[in-house]
Amino acid sequence: MKDIKNLKLAYIGGGSKQWARIFMNDLALDEDMCGTIYLYDIDNEAAKLNKEIGNKIASHKDCKSKWKYEVSKTIDEALMGADFVIISILPGTFKEMHSDVHEPEKYGIYQPVGDTTGPGGVLRAMRTVPIYEYFAKKIKEICPESYVINFTNPMAICVKTLYDVFPEIKAFGCCHEVFNTQDFLCAVLKETLNIEVKRREIYTNVIGINHFTWIDKATYKDINIMSLLDEFLDRYYESGYSVKGDVDAYKTNPFAYSNRVKMDLYKRYGALGAAGDRHLVEFLNNNWYLKDKKKIEEWKFNLTSVDFRINRMEQRIKDTIELANGTKEIELKQSSEEAVDLMKAILGLSTMVSNVNLPNVGQIKDLPKGAIVETNALFTHNQIVPLYAGKLNDEAHNLVLRNLINQEGLYEAIKARDLNKIFNIFVNQPLCSTLTIKDAKELFKSMVFNTQKYLGDYYSIFSYYNQ
Amino acid sequence: MKDIKNLKLAYIGGGSKQWARIFMNDLALDEDMCGTIYLYDIDNEAAKLNKEIGNKIASHKDCKSKWKYEVSKTIDEALMGADFVIISILPGTFKEMHSDVHEPEKYGIYQPVGDTTGPGGVLRAMRTVPIYEYFAKKIKEICPESYVINFTNPMAICVKTLYDVFPEIKAFGCCHEVFNTQDFLCAVLKETLNIEVKRREIYTNVIGINHFTWIDKATYKDINIMSLLDEFLDRYYESGYSVKGDVDAYKTNPFAYSNRVKMDLYKRYGALGAAGDRHLVEFLNNNWYLKDKKKIEEWKFNLTSVDFRINRMEQRIKDTIELANGTKEIELKQSSEEAVDLMKAILGLSTMVSNVNLPNVGQIKDLPKGAIVETNALFTHNQIVPLYAGKLNDEAHNLVLRNLINQEGLYEAIKARDLNKIFNIFVNQPLCSTLTIKDAKELFKSMVFNTQKYLGDYYSIFSYYNQ
Amino acid sequence: MKDIKNLKLAYIGGGSKQWARIFMNDLALDEDMCGTIYLYDIDNEAAKLNKEIGNKIASHKDCKSKWKYEVSKTIDEALMGADFVIISILPGTFKEMHSDVHEPEKYGIYQPVGDTTGPGGVLRAMRTVPIYEYFAKKIKEICPESYVINFTNPMAICVKTLYDVFPEIKAFGCCHEVFNTQDFLCAVLKETLNIEVKRREIYTNVIGINHFTWIDKATYKDINIMSLLDEFLDRYYESGYSVKGDVDAYKTNPFAYSNRVKMDLYKRYGALGAAGDRHLVEFLNNNWYLKDKKKIEEWKFNLTSVDFRINRMEQRIKDTIELANGTKEIELKQSSEEAVDLMKAILGLSTMVSNVNLPNVGQIKDLPKGAIVETNALFTHNQIVPLYAGKLNDEAHNLVLRNLINQEGLYEAIKARDLNKIFNIFVNQPLCSTLTIKDAKELFKSMVFNTQKYLGDYYSIFSYYNQ
Amino acid sequence: MKDIKNLKLAYIGGGSKQWARIFMNDLALDEDMCGTIYLYDIDNEAAKLNKEIGNKIASHKDCKSKWKYEVSKTIDEALMGADFVIISILPGTFKEMHSDVHEPEKYGIYQPVGDTTGPGGVLRAMRTVPIYEYFAKKIKEICPESYVINFTNPMAICVKTLYDVFPEIKAFGCCHEVFNTQDFLCAVLKETLNIEVKRREIYTNVIGINHFTWIDKATYKDINIMSLLDEFLDRYYESGYSVKGDVDAYKTNPFAYSNRVKMDLYKRYGALGAAGDRHLVEFLNNNWYLKDKKKIEEWKFNLTSVDFRINRMEQRIKDTIELANGTKEIELKQSSEEAVDLMKAILGLSTMVSNVNLPNVGQIKDLPKGAIVETNALFTHNQIVPLYAGKLNDEAHNLVLRNLINQEGLYEAIKARDLNKIFNIFVNQPLCSTLTIKDAKELFKSMVFNTQKYLGDYYSIFSYYNQ
What we know:
The structure is a homotetramer. By secondary structure, chain A is of the alpha/beta class. The first copy, chain A, has 2 domains: 7-92 and 115-173, NAD(P)-binding Rossmann-like Domain (Rossmann fold), CATH 3.40.50; 93-114 and 174-304 and 337-467, LDH C-terminal domain-like (Alpha-Beta Complex), CATH 3.90.1820.10. Helices cover 43% and strands 15% of the residues of chain A. The first copy, chain A, has 18 helices and 13 strands. In chain A, strands 7, 8, 9, 10, 11, 12 and 13 form a 7-stranded antiparallel β-sheet that branches. A 6-stranded parallel β-sheet of chain A has the order 3-2-1-4-5-6, with helices on both faces. The termini of chain A are far apart. The model of chain A has no long low-confidence stretch (mean pLDDT 96). The interface between A and B is medium-sized, with 31 and 31 residues.
């Protein structure tokens, strides 16, 4: 039996300035588990800074457990003997992300995020799959019994790669987008029936694919929360509604949204999109909610420019250095993430239901087996057991299916390193609905060209261009 | 045992000026079967004219069998005791077809045919399903053991309706589009290997849905005809190729096409679209091959305007009257249609393989069971047995799947008479890819308005407009 | 929202001398729920006695909640407005059960229980299905939203009938056999690693059909309990092992068993039969563990004669009267049953995992959809969600599959009231493996004859005999 | 394109004294194909004799085509460049077959054939699979494009091995048992309606597994032949019926049968077993039709003792030598086998439907994909396309399913060379229904012991015995 006071964690992408920090905090504020975390990153310096910060967090007065941070020079060293492997990386740099997100704008395609689907998602997947093939091989070789928790996007493609390369892997993908929709449903309960509960006090049936997840059943005791939505929409459909209070936050905050898209989808399809509006719109024809900036403004969400991300990162780097050298003080704060709770459930300390990304074994009816889907699963005693989610109503199901076949087809095309096949998927993206084949080809070629630094080892780019 | 010299056929839509005539000819030139044909049509006068013509054909000197034509005043009378029921109707009039085909042009959507899919297909289906529900009920009640052969479009929706209302029905849908592609493959064999054969001498694996059917295997003896396509495309991809000789016929003949789309699809997807180019393009994003008239010209096919159809019909009516009253002489000519041959095979006079539209029992892998698909089947001794067609390569399969889920979803939405659901399918049509939701709604409403005469009995149009 | 202090429960079979009493106790000792229980029984007097006892329990000093007991004269009255419907009936009397269990002994077929499968199970099912068809219709008509909890055997056939007649029913079947196997696994943990835990502290994957359920994964924290079985078997395979201590109890107690069959199945099939040995053997060829009384003695379990049951019932009736009239004092005692906990979870008071009988929606891979299977499900907030159980190893799976196709086939044959079809299933029972067709027919006819009082309304017995 | 006047055939088991001879005859009497046949056999002398005979046949005055016979010393030489590979071998010798067939008699298990299923089938499969694994590897390596026709039993296990080792193989298994049942149905047509036709003039739906195949639909023109069976059974159920005339032939001819079992199965299950009665009974509980010799006599079929086979073989060897050295004259005679016709259809000379053994791709509904089943397929132009056979009625389906899961499980267990798993399948055979586990183990061990010469290289027999 494992000694939960002496666990070993490997953190791939351990130089992360955001996720790693949140995770460190949550670990510190949990009192059950202790152990050592091995940070591995291709940016070794960043890992070193995080080690400093990690150890400072671990020795903070409010820390409830004992954790030690180490930097691993090689991935092998990090993985050796790991009980859990956390993966959270950026495939490429902001330069590539800039091309992913903004190059398509030249053809009238706006992407609020651009990391999961649409043209940006395709290119990012092309960079990510080869890296994850490598991770999967390493895990198979070094720590096949470890649990692997993925946070990287494109989520589904990452999890698919892990399972395709190493089918026995104990991997799953975590995403908090659903949590926000659960908060939204709690708000519905509050606004209509004046019942105030937390999201973990209701039960929602989660069904779909990552970032295009849906909720079709939501209950609190015997109350059908879905049935309250019509009344809620009567009041908030036009104005929008923000769980955090400020419905106009989207005007200044590039991550904010007012749930107008979510409510519109409910109106049209009778099921609730369970991700941020910024994500949901990327799975639909581009002329639906992203035709132009005016339309986007009307739907009350925002595009996240990569320049904004760059600026934010610069600030974060500054913070990181200050936190590492002690100039800036550490404050422990629990996040709303669930990774630490899920780990505890896996260790047998609790039983817990949460939404995760896993291969479909039938948890969603009438979707292909083996495709990566997001639904609820039970976490407990060394087991992760999918809960049966059923099937969305036909029309919403078909929207998901269309994107799922793109998602799975994209993985197969990338696995084959076949640029023609990848292009067939690219042009089939809902976000590319308005493109001519000629424009699509031009755009695809530019995006490949812009990011070739991370593609050249894997794809025959040169011969493709000379086709 | 049936007396094949005394069969009874019911022809629903028996006033038809085209299909009925072809069928009468083919019957006359077959020497095995004889009997009586009961023509039923809501246009009783048209049926009467066809009766005249039919009986003239039957008494033509070249006629090899004995057939008698009668007009049935009621559908019940026509169906009573029928061995075979032929259905070939026009749901609505050219006025409605005009709206189906041309109204979307106001929004930049061009449809070469507009009777199967796309906005026109959706509206036509809305008119057709209620009629076919009625036919199915009548057949179930009056002649449940009859074989029912459908020629009406939208083919798949018609066949779906028949089976959904009366699951034990012995119905199938016949379409000659695949034949032309088989002729095209014979041309490939001729042009590359100088082997000259007829289409029935090769074997093709037919797989897909009506008018978006594909061929992924084609053999003549042990020759893989598909492997000859690259060489053929080297020569004809740019210029186009017409089986009938004149590659520029499309300039004047609104039904002509040069197979450039078919060849392009093969280039992109590695399988051959097995229908006329005019049909194939309607299942793809409108900006791919139908962006504007210039594009259409480049791909060397033509749009068939409804005005053209109206003019042609006027000529046909004239001909009909002249044929009926003997002013114009009857010429017997065998068509390339297979309905008569299929009937003979069902009667046990031969064994024959042909492509037909039937519910999927597994003949296409990984498509939903019960959906109407088009593949080969064996016809023999009172049995129609689907042949296993397998699955197209992933990317072509996905194109079919996207359209199939629209097709099946459309049927369900119409069955429910739910205009909101129908609109969800409408806006999800590949031909509507460039529409905003607002424009799509506007267009849908106009098309419903234009054709309300044939919809009002079934749908709550008024309340939909006041939503 | 429901008022959990004012629930309405319908108890069909409310005159029960065993289950009803246990349930009353468990309700009394729970502090969250209150309400009224309507007892309905064809034996109205028995229901009245239970009402007396129920109200005495409810006014007992240790009772933690307020419950009121009423007798319903009609099933309609009991069901009207019910939040939960409990069904626990005896189809027929001990006279019929006597034939079920003992008539086959004349042909060398011994049945320790005889209420689920084998010849006795078939006959009992024949009496039960018509009754459950009636229940299902009543529930559909009167309280379609109620949760229905079944305790009657043959469990799977009962649940199947409910769902087949009323597919939207919220029914599930509860059985405690798995609990005992979980206790057994806790004993394994104790005996091998000296870790002492309760059954709810481990997680087991439950998979199979009622009374022929299996456990193929069992974990406590990260310990694989299954991997401890070899060591455990080394010590206890020969001697047997009883969770309750006395391994020889089977010599006097007709319900006792020593788990030798369970351990033998594990040895042979690598998975653990998760029901009492008395049940497990009934799903296997009769010459395996039930060849004769000597064999049964060797495997250290016992046959439960119906005479024993009759004697026990007489004692219970005596007790009942004494409890009802106050001669005998009531003692409140919590059972190990989970029905009350499951009800609370459904009401949203907790989240809970338990094994239940439900139609297969995919929770067991490669078993027919719609067949009744037993696996884990999550109970929470008005939802019962099956957990994915996967598939047993091929050989154990095949044993289950063989019995499942009998189970489902039996239901269909009974539904059709077709005695020939029922016989085909009868002779296909593993317990009938040694019968000739002639003997099987003779036995079947006798058993039908013996129990005709409860069959005559439904089956054409007379014409069957004169075949 | 292949030169059909210069084909290359490889005949594995080319020393065969029966099948090879029939095949040589059929080839000689066909006028379309010519070429060379390479005979390979581990008994090289036998192959040489067949070469002599083959060449004599080829130069016979009635021979219509040119064939040359050669002996290959190695399998590689035979396979190199082969257009078709014929496999027809005896795995082991009559000594092993003697154990397969007669050892179980000591335990009351009678097997009329003992080469497909039951205890004999299991042991024979154990010898055969390793040989076929070798064949499959060789074919994959040397002639992956060849068509492979299997005649060896256990048919399904042989075909399974070929496809499992080399999934792209173009293999199929041919069996004539169905032909006899088709003749039987022609007799039904003759006896009831006085219509005289040949078996190829009717259409039958073939469905099941080899030697336990069924026919559930049979039509001649629009006549449902199945509907005539009741009348036919009224006359012949008691007496039996032989297509060849002498219903009592079974008394002296160990291969004869009177179709009483077939008719009884139809009576009980509503579908017609489509193999010889001797085969059908082996898939059913041994007490049904094989309880003892008296029972067998009543059902009017016979057991084929291996001594009889040995005697027959001695006569055949004598004949072979005489034919080879010219003492005995060659007579050309067309058989009723279809192998030559199927080859011609594959070469594109005709289109033909016949029953074959192939992996299930869905041709039988609700049976596992990949399992080897026997149904109709279309043979034409380098393609073998399964025809959809649907599903037998539930009860007959379940009989097939039970045997199919044994069949597939047996293959997996042999593939794993796991004697414990093989025993689990052994004891699960319907023919072993009456065995205790102890007796079954004893019997299995004896049979393994008896045939160890052919098993020792593959299985850990020694360690199994010392378990």
